[in-house]
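W.,

You were right to be curious about this one. When I first looked at the sequence I had no strong expectations either way, so I just let the prediction run and decided to look at it fresh. Below is the sequence, 139 residues in total, followed by the output.
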Amino acid sequence: MSNALGWDAAGTPRADRQSARSEEKELKTEMPIILLLLMIVVIVVLFFITANVLGVILTLFIAGLVGALADAVVPGRLPWGWLGAILAGLVGGWIGTAIMGNVGPVIAGVAILPAFIGAMILAFIVSLVFKQTGARRGY
């Protein structure tokens, strides 16, 4: 008798089962679209993160080259090895750009000519400071 009134054996109305099936069908068609949009957003975010990280790495590499070249030109040695060369390139780029402006080629955000001149100035100052303090310390 329960089947004649529109109820199934589990006690759920038949109309509710049909609406649940249609909602399930709509959810199945909407889910791939939502997943596709989510995947696109994740890919775009990862692309920008990767591009920014690679840009920073490239900037540090170019600054290190500029600092190493300035260290090779100026008598004396920069402290801290390659970290000192990177720091000299970055700070030298800031000093050189403040003195000369953005002149010459720019690679990875580093203006090469002002960065080289600023790194040479910085390396000269650091070599003078370390020469004076090193003589007293016995270096």
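Here's what jumped out at me. The radius of gyration is 33 Å. And, maybe more interesting for your project: Helices lie at 14-73, 81-100, 112-137.

Coffee later to discuss?

I.
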